[in-house]
Amino acid sequence: MVDFQCKDSYDYADLLRIMELLRAPGGCPWDREQTHESLRRNFLEEAYEVTEAINLGDSAALCEELGDVLLQVVFHAELEREAGSFTMSDVVDGICKKLIFRHPHVFGTVTVQDTDEELSRWEALKRTEKGQTSTADAVDAVARTLPALWRAEKIQSKAAKAGFEWPGEDGALRKLEEETRELRQAAESGAPADAPHGVKEEVGDVLFMAAKIAQLYGVDPEEALHASCDKFASRFRSVEENAGAPLDSLSADRLLSLWDEAKRREKS
Fold first, then answer.
1. Angle at 214 between CA 174 and CA 259, to 5 degrees
2. Which of 21, 66, 202, 218 has minimal Cβ neighbours within 10 Å of its Cβ?
């Protein structure tokens, strides 16, 4: 047994101590085996579970899931403390200094008129802080581990703020149509999907422009695609429940008819 006093209520210091004990000799074998790499997916999954709790408006679940995310933060910090790189105190100190630096209108003498001016100043301070001297630097700095639609939207938003923009929504829509035609050409060419200008590349271009149109209209492309996934799932359930036979035994015309019926029921 480890030297730890159980109690009715715990605080932040207790969390750090528990994490240290789990990793210590005589602690948990699983925790002792973990690395940054092995924990990476856990971190992402916990963050998405926080988002799910927010979407559901479930405060109790949100409290629990925020705790799970905090555990991931503390776990990674403990690995670095053991390696002698930094501690959780360094993490907290760093974020405090960052917040103070990026809010001179709160902690300094700068005055901002509205949210737009504040966000513009935030981006400028962020670039200074990270040593970014151009918009290209800022674009390159967008995390490659983001969901691809979010990354595409964020990249294009940064480019647009620098003046690289399509001539209105119609220009972006025409570009999407162009990319769609190129996708059809790639599909009909018979070339391998991963060939230059093949289906893989052209699908990416179509999705990239779709994300751009979402950005132009202030739509979150991830939310939009999730909504489409939900809509498809609902219609598919209706098709399957009303088919009267296995779907793979039905003709394409019958499947299309069932799909149209599902759409009509959805609108009624």
1. 85
2. 218
Contact between 223 and 234 (Cβ < 8 Å)? no
Distance CA 178, CA 202 (A): 10
Check: CB of residue 199 under 8 Å from CB of residue 183.
yes
Signed CA dihedral, 235, 236, 242, 248: sign only: positive
Which contiguous run of DSSP H or E holds residue 48?
Answer: helix 36-56
- Measured between alpha carbons, how far apart are the two ends of the chain, in Å? 64
- Domain span at residue 57 reads 12-86
Domain-embedded: residue 212? no
Contact 238, 262 (CB under 8 A): yes
In this model, does residue 261 exceed pLDDT 90?
Answer: yes
Residue type present at position 184: R
Percent of the chain beyond pLDDT 90? 68
Q: What pTM was computed for the model?
A: 0.66
How far is 48 from 45, CA to CA, in rounded Å?
A: 5
Between CA 255 and CA 251 the distance in angstroms is 6
- Phi and psi (nearest 5°) for 250? -95, 155
Query: What confidence score (pLDDT) does residue 136 get?
Result: 87
Query: What whole-number distance in Å separates Cα of residue 31 and Cα of residue 21?
Result: 10
The more confident residue out of 55 and 203 is 203
Q: In 22-112, at which residue ranges do the beta strands (DSSP E only) sit?
A: none
In terms of Cα–Cα distance, which of 210, 211, 213 is closest to 169?
A: 213
Number of domains in the chain: 2
- Of 64, 86, 108, which residue constitutes the final position of a domain? 86
